[in-house]
Amino acid sequence: MCSMRVGRFADRRAAGCELAEHLTQCAGREDVTVLGLPRGGIPVAHEVAASLHAPLDALLVRKLGVPGREELAFGAIASGGVRVLNDDVVSQARLDAATIERIAAAELRELERRERLYRGDRPAADVRGRTALVVDDGVATGATMRAAVQALRELGAGTVVVAVPIAAWQTCEELARHADTVVCARTPDPFVAVGLWYRDFSPTTDDEVRELLDVSRRGLER
């Protein structure tokens, strides 16, 4: 599901509100869990979860960036030992196995730190047999999202839905080969970069992630 609406989102929360309009088929269902990709995906996912009256959790995924060009992902890792590599980028950047392992190990340490920070003693959401709706603030190459989809498959999710407010249409088509459903609220052409489609693309902090997860949990407990 994609659209060609133009203009920039005010911020991530506004993007989440618009994205939720494309996900009404998931509203009020007891089998849906919303998973946001920290950090930027959490404010988007929070609005989606609130609109759908669904539980929210963080799915930890870390991009593996090419040395000196860290914005260019050659792969990603996710909770549970999942690793996805983009063979074309690895080849073009001439990355050897030792370099890949060094970068992956550093990102794994950060992933584990964030898991402890965001959840504390709480276990991760159990997605076995459920519809896992995985949300980010946008996708460019799709490496991080592919790792998220693979992680959810390995965690036993019954159905995996990828939902983002903004993406390149080619990436949406590629992700459709991995997820059961892909929802891209906007697919501008040319796409260029995620941040260009937000008026406010300020970094989301760890404290904001933790607060939004806590607010969502308390709302469901009422």
Question: Could you describe the 3D structure shown?
Answer:
- The chain has 222 residues and is α/β, with parallel strands linked by helices.
- It has a domain at 12-59 and 126-221: Rossmann fold, CATH 3.40.50.2020.
- Helix content is 38%, strand content 21%.
- The protein is built from 7 helices and 8 strands, in the order αβαββββααβαβαβα.
- It has helices spanning 12-20, 41-52, 87-92, 97-119, 143-154, 169-175, 206-221, and strands at residues 32-36, 56-58, 61-66, 69-78, 82-85, 131-135, 159-166, 181-186.
- The strands form 2 sheets. A 5-stranded parallel sheet has the order 2-1-6-7-8, with helices on both faces. Strands 3-4-5 form a 3-stranded antiparallel sheet.
- α5 (143-154) links the parallel β6 (131-135) and β7.
- The longest helix has 23 residues, at 97-119.
- The N and C termini lie far apart (33 Å).
Number of helices: 7
Helix content: 25-40%
Spatial ordering of strands, largest sheet? 2-1-6-7-8
Whole-number mean pLDDT: 91
Largest sheet features: 5 strands, parallel
Number of strands: 8
Features:
222 residues, Rossmann fold, 5-stranded parallel beta sheet, globular
